[in-house]
Amino acid sequence: MDEPAPGPRPRLSGRAVAVLGATAVVAVALDQWVKWLSTENLEEGHPVRILGGLIYLSLLRNSGAAFSLGSDYTWVFPVITLIVIGWIGYMATRLRSLPWALALGLVLGGALGNLIDRLFRAPGFLHGHVVDMVSLFGPYAEYFAVFNIADSCLSVGVVLAVLLELTGRQRDGSRISVRKKK
Asked: What is the average pLDDT score of the chain?
């Protein structure tokens, strides 16, 4: 791989940061709205079958990560989330790429959506259970973890970031080219 040519570093792009911020705000708002709808309209233990059983809406409160991993260490998840938020804030100071802004905005929005649950939902501060409601192929995570909008945003953002890295797109808007040697 060739390294980018040295030269003046591009400055912060207000447009990219605005995309990051707007994406995060929309992700958090949608996540919290769907969680509110779920807690108001779904009952635990009474899943709603959709699309012939392809999707189930199953209200669950998860103290851990996917498949309830780490349920005894709920305080760890907010700490990790705060580190991720700090890293995204740092990256935003160098951000000029709109695709990277979208990816980082999705990760930030997903992280904040679940952090809100960890901070403000029962059983208490730093130990709150995340509201999950979407289950694929079975009502109780028989085939795939039950998830929420924040989890979806995190997953899509991370996949997009990996694709951007693999294609050589940099957060500062430059691109690393791959040339074959003779």
From this structure: 88
